[in-house]
Amino acid sequence: MSDRIVTGWKPHFAKVWSKETVVIDHSLHTSPLFSEEAIAELIEQTPPEHYNLATMGHDTKRAEWREGIVGGASGKETMEAIKNGRLWLNIRHCQDFDPRYKAVLDQLFEEFEAHMPGLHTYKRNMGILITSPKCQTFYHFDLPGQHLWQIKGRKKVYIYPNRDPFLPNIDRQRVIMKETREEFPFEEWYDDYAEVYHLEPGQMAYWPLHAPHRVENEDCLNISLTLEHWDTDVRNLYAVHYGNGVLRRTLGYQAGNHQPYGFHVYPKAALSLAWKKLGMERKTVFRDEVDFKIDASKPMGLADIPMMAKA
Ligand SMILES: [Fe+2]
Question: Residue 262: its pLDDT value, please?
């Protein structure tokens, strides 16, 4: 792929990158790699450990979330079920099993790095999200830098401040130290403090590090990419909150400095490394259980199956 992917870059984006939300035009919605047909083929090539399929309720507070499997459905049937149902399919780490998507991922980060000398990204990751009309992703935050790239359909993205009370430090530390998953309570009044973006095909959004967010689809099939990366700021912010978490767990000390820069970063990074080396990080394995499979002939595109552990 030789054409430019990041088409709407403006020089001032470099000044606010990972600190303020930026919405940037891109060209991936025109790439044949992300057409409905190509995604249907990709679904059939996706190893079972590379996807999560879910259906969810209508409450914004995560009242209902069930995981399922594609089962024997073809790619086309899966797309059909998603169009008609309330389903969320996340094909994870596409770059690890399909070199065509790895090439796209590498090119777009190289473009960002060319625009921002000094930016060095690693642990780059691409997920492809295929989601039903009106479906939602619940309130959460992500440890790496996370971008949402819109390919098809429209969605409303709510982005909240990455600080108390929207993201209490104690909850952030628990997620970072793997004591819990990347989810925590959401209150409806948080919306009064949210930035809201209506993403269209050909637009991507990148928000401040650790900013909690949630997403609602409009009444149409959505194909989107979630891209993740690590860089110095991501790593330092992770180390500071990890180190603060270790201080809380061992000494009961509530550290007040959460900035990803300054002299306190290095001892906290060393503390987090020591904690891991001592084997103190919780080895919790979050195992998903599934209780439905795709069935395009059913009104909601799914059929119940006996509950079992996902492969
Ligand atoms: Fe996210």
Answer: 72
